[in-house]
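B., you asked whether I could sanity-check this one before it goes into the benchmark set. Here's the sequence:
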Amino acid sequence: MGLGRVGLLVFLALVLGGGVEGKGEKESGKPFVNFVLLGATGDLSAKYLWKGLYALHQQDIPNLNFRIYGTARAPPGPGRRKIREYIDRIPCEGSQCAHLKDFSDSIEYFQLKTTDQWTSICQKLNATGGKDGTLEQSRIFYLAIPPFAYDFVAHQIHRQCRPANPSASLRVAFEKPFGHNYNSAQTLAKQLKELFLENEMLHVDHYLGKPVIRDLLEIRRQNPNLFNRRHVKRVDIVVREAIDVKGRTNFYNSVGVIRDVLQVTFLSSLKPLNPSQMVLAGRYQGYDSHVHSENGGPPYMPTFASAALTISDPQSSWYGVPFVLTSGKSTGLRESYIRVTLFPDRENAEKKADALHHWYGRMEIQGKSWRREAEDSWKFHGPAKPYDHLIQALISGNRASFAQTSSLLASCRVWDSNISASEISPQNSLYLYQPQDLTESVISITEDGILQLQRKSSASRSLHDGFYQPQDLTESVISITEDGILQLQRKSAASRSLHDGL
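And here's what the prediction gave me:
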């Protein structure tokens, strides 16, 4: 996250076994959904999942109730306090604050470390409903936990926690990363296949929850004559954060930014743009000391990476188009966008612009924007709340917003064969960076398909990014192009000496 999206389904938090009465509690005969969040005290839940659940809590779905359970390894007291702390951070105004408190009070917490503790929550889940004619419609487990815990948790769900109502559906959502590499992903997929049906498993890829991704796919579908390899020169997908990972390195150093964010599945068929270098990767200065102070050690995973891929199918209309995926921590900026760069074409530039205006105006999507950066470059922005959409999709059973096991394994195979060295070898594009190294640079691609971190000119820093340093102005002059466009142009050494008295 990070990524709401489309209209939200309603979410209603009800209390079991006492507590604050939730909206709709007095209504009998309404089917209900049990939603169990594992890893409820973790970073992902703090940043995204509780916010998404609360957004749904504020509305109402006809003929359906919800009951939410937060679980983690922490004892009940600390666990409840941590969840309340996360929910208290959610912004609210006026009467919304009372709803926020109701939502917080309605969540029931369970410590889950042992088989006996699993027995306790499963008995509670299986005992709900029936007294007033209600029936459990579906039971959802969201696994916001490390992949090494998947096997134990999956066995507990299968053995003890399947819905008692035979007509109720079971959905188990697995967060990324799915294993550490292709072999471990294969092993895990085989283990889960013995426990669950394919339609009971949903693999979370938060890119699929980003509206900007879904919008681009829809735009491409509606404009096949514009969005193809004849016109598109390059597509950049960027997710950058300003914060570092201090306090979270025990998890992060086991994953790294590549497997945490970049290993996407929404591109169905991938190959490296250049097999000799698929990834440009680095670590922020101070990361190694953060890992060391939190009792970790080498190999040190990258905290910033940019990968260049393309579609492998020669018959695809996107074949050969570079997709440059970039993400990182401590990058100096927090932003999420897609940039589509078209081949220069002055004759048809206005037609292309009109086409872009046409479908964005026709789609009328609130909270999203795009702007034309240059003659043949457009930048698309969207609100960073992908988990709002993914939670909605989980409840409704919309599998289109989740990755299939087969596509997940195919993605793992591509990435695993090309990035393992980039993760651990200082000789393979790993470097130390400071935030300004990234804010003052762009990712360029050589003719051979090699990624490079290229420092921006003073003009591009000032004009496109909206900030400048004193030397950007003292070492530059305002020039005018033939089209009457103002530019900030860096002075030559001679002009600096003559005009500035150096």
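One thing to flag: The first strand starts at residue 13 and ends at 14. Otherwise nothing jumped out at me.
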